[in-house]
Amino acid sequence: MSPALGDYAGEQLQQAAEKILFGKYEVGKLLGYGAFAKVYHGWDIEAETSVAIKAINKQRIVNGGLAGHVKREISAMRRLRHPNIVRLQEVLANQKKIYFVLEFAKGGELFSKVAKSRFSEDLSRRYFQQLISAIGYCHSRGVYHRDLKPENLLLDEHWNLKVTDFGLSAVTEQAHSDALLHTMCGTPAYVAPEILAKKGYDGAKVDIWSCGIILYVLNAGYLPFNDPNLMVMYRKIYKGEFRVPKWTSPELKRFLLRLLDTNPQTRITVEEIIKDPWFKIGYKDASFSSDHFETKDGDDVGRSGNLKNLNAFDIISFSSGYNLSGLFDEQDSGEMFLSTVSPEEIIERVADAAEEESLTVATRRKWCVKVDGGQYGNFTLTLEVKRLTDELVVVEVRWRECESEPGPEMWKDRLRPQLCNLIYQPDGSVAGK
Question: A Gene Ontology molecular-function term (predicted)?
Fold first, then answer.
């Protein structure tokens, strides 16, 4: 075979491999793309269902300083299980790309529907009710979207609304000591006036403002604040200068004025929205509860760092095909695995294995052991155990990635083979074999 034919055959094999992602998903046609990611239609081979696959170029994210956006999106979406929020099923990664496997929204963007024609007041209310149900739930889980707009609202096959794209989201832990967020973000026409003031803002109040803009667009078919001159538009937003279309009912007009109140202190809250007479018409869950759409196993991380309960995404997060710990860190590497063995026994087994390999156990505690290179050189390998459930723990192994240090090889080739029977595999197989 000539070199040219060999190169061509290699390219064909690579393309074929990329079409079947990790042996689990068949990658189909391109649905859309941005500066750092492409979204494809995918097929879950085992479940025989459609998915959306968001492929993110890892190097471009790192070079662009946007690793935090990806991490925030994962951090936010792993907390959320709601029928009006696109579900993140799995995150996979290789050396070049990160893949989000998402629920597939067959109906496309809500924006494409409203761009053709404004909605009736009843239809606008229906979608706004679903939006508030989703956003109220997000807030109850400490997640603030911060980039709500029709382009980030999708429709499923039954034409129900699905909120997506949490790349600019924030979580409660990001708030400053004043309990306010300070990052300038959002799409210009949907940004709240307090963000423009750059004095800190309440993430929940900012989302409510954007919801008000969306409701206005659904009812009117155009934006309340719009101008080719960006500074003029910002001035209108800051002053709250907009007109309600003449076909708007008095009840909806009053409601919009409460949503688009430039003062975040007096702007309507989710709890008040639920009780509003215009909003309540036909609403099936007027007594909204943050637990209404919550799965029983969806509790989040407690202050101790241990998960109270383990939801489906957490299981995926710590399974062998998925490890976010070193996605963007160019200096340190490592891996995670699950185990049903007690932390004490794991630490004891690791310490014994290290001593057999003539390594030095520098630190040994109930939940952590640190191993130094001893006669093999200057390196440190740390193993930490965290409890996930009564039955499961996650074990995180970290080392310094350096060609002159034997950390990775020492773990992978010398220590891990001695511990393979500690590693839990959901499919029943034995890790390390």
Answer: protein serine/threonine kinase activity
Provide the CATH number for the domain around residue 32.
3.30.200.20
- Out of 280, 301, 333, pick the residue that ends a domain: 280
pTM: 0.61
285 catalytic per annotation: no
**Domain of residue 74, residue span:** 16-103
Q: Output the known binding site for ATP.
A: 54
* Top-confidence residue, 396 or 181: 396
Q: Per mean pLDDT, which of 96-100, 211-215, 223-227, 234-238 is the most reliable?
A: 211-215
CATH number at residue 400: 3.30.310.80
What are the start-end ranges of the E strands in 8-124? 20-21, 25-33, 37-44, 49-57, 88-93, 97-103, 108-109
406 vs 13 pLDDT, higher one:
406
CA angle 256, 261, 264 (to 5 degrees): 135
Beta-carbon contacts of residue 284 (< 8 Å; ≥ 6 apart): none
Active-site entry in 147, 202, 261, 314: 147
